[in-house]
Design a protein that fits this description.
349 residues; alpha+beta; Peptide Methionine Sulfoxide Reductase, Chain A; Beta-Lactamase; 2 domains; six-stranded mixed beta sheet; six-stranded antiparallel beta sheet
Length: 349
């Protein structure tokens, strides 16, 4: 068994998150990296003054044969804002700073690689500490498993983060080494639909377009969607549009721009295709053939692809092979948390 220490803002949510990670034996809330000038065991009230140098930290003990340090650290970066100094969510102060502290020097190269990936993903230097562990003290009993004891208690993480963690792990385990992407799409659709209770969940797959007449053939030869369109794939929910053209509607836009598109109100989206009048909000996530790409920012952020598949920086970007489309009967259902986890799930295709 090995251990690693994560400071990720308020330790209540960080502890609850890592307690739910498969392969983690225990997650303990505590205080780490206190000032050498501070003698003895700190109390919560002392740490709260921001004068002790301690950060709220979670000690994670895990089985490396079940989960790697690499995966744990990637999950850590999924639940923090690595560009926010001394603040996570509504919590502010040096006690809420972010950091990863290691007790085994052999872990450093793995951690450095994870930090490099995170920095590349956000495109800026991180403000996350990476240091050898100096000290760690367990927090008072009232802080251990706080959200288990207080299910409606405060947490700086969105509560759906914990649902998505379980969903992601269960999908990954269930799919195993199944080689057929259509079968994987079918299972993913079912898992998301049943667990998250969305109105419609399914995939549209990039296929060669059906040429219906000469005018359509000429149209298909124009632009980057040369002779292709999105064709309905595995889905859960009511009947849906069979085919969607390149750049049309939310799905076609996500395909064209190779990025996740979050739409709080589908009626306000230009060119929205109304497959069902019951759909009120939507998220569409591109699926790529390779997972070795940097996912663009969600909710319409990040560079937009030009017709040649390059972004505004001129760097070629991978083209989607499909999109995951999810609809809700409610307005503003989806946000950056949904985008992050659904992008992770799409990498399982």
């Amino acid at each position: 068994m090995k251990e690693i220490y994560f400071a990720g803002g308020c330790f209540w949510g960080t502890e609850h998150f890592f307690s739910g990670v498969d392969g983690v034996v225990s997650a303990v809330s505590g205080y780490a990296q206190g000032s050498p000038d501070f003698a003895g065991r700190p109390s919560y009230e002392q740490v709260y003054t921001d004068t002790t140098g301690f950060a709220e930290t979670v000690k994670v003990c895990y089985k490396p044969e079940r989960i790697s340090l690499d995966m744990l650290t990637d999950l850590y970066f999924d639940i923090i804002d690595p560009l926010s100094l001394n603040r996570q969510g509504h919590d502010e102060g040096t006690r809420y700073r972010t950091g990863v502290y290691y007790s085994d020097p052999a872990d450093l190269p793995v951690l450095e690689a994870a930090f490099a990936r995170a920095a590349e993903r956000v495109g800026q230097p991180l403000v996350v500490e990476l240091e050898p562990l100096r000290n760690f003290f367990e927090a008072e009993e009232r802080h251990q498993k706080y959200l288990d004891k207080n299910p409606d208690g405060y947490c700086h993480l969105p509560f759906k983060t914990f649902r998505y963690l379980r969903l992601y792990q269960d999908i990954s385990a269930f799919l195993g080494d199944e080689p057929d992407p259509i079968a994987r799409m079918a299972e993913i659709s079912a898992f998301i639909y049943e667990r998250m209770k969305f109105f419609w969940v399914g995939f549209y797959i990039v296929r060669d377009a059906v040429v219906r007449d000469a005018a359509a053939a000429r149209s298909d030869r124009q632009g980057p969607g040369l002779g292709q369109e999105l064709v309905l794939g595995p889905f859960q929910g009511p009947s849906a549009c069979l085919r969607i053209a390149y750049g049309r509607g939310v799905c076609g836009t996500a395909w064209k721009e190779a990025r996740t598109v979050v739409v709080p109100d589908v009626e306000a989206f230009p060119g929205h295709i109304a497959c069902s009048s019951l759909s009120r909000s939507e998220i569409v996530v591109p699926v790529f053939a390779s997972t070795a790409h940097a996912s663009p920012s969600a909710a319409g952020k990040g560079p937009v692809s030009d017709p040649q598949g390059a972004d505004c920086t001129g760097i070629a970007r991978p083209k989607p092979i499909a999109v995951l489309d999810i609809d809700s009967k409610d307005l503003a259902t989806f946000d950056s948390t949904d985008a992050l986890w659904l992008e992770k799930i799409c990498k399982l295709v």
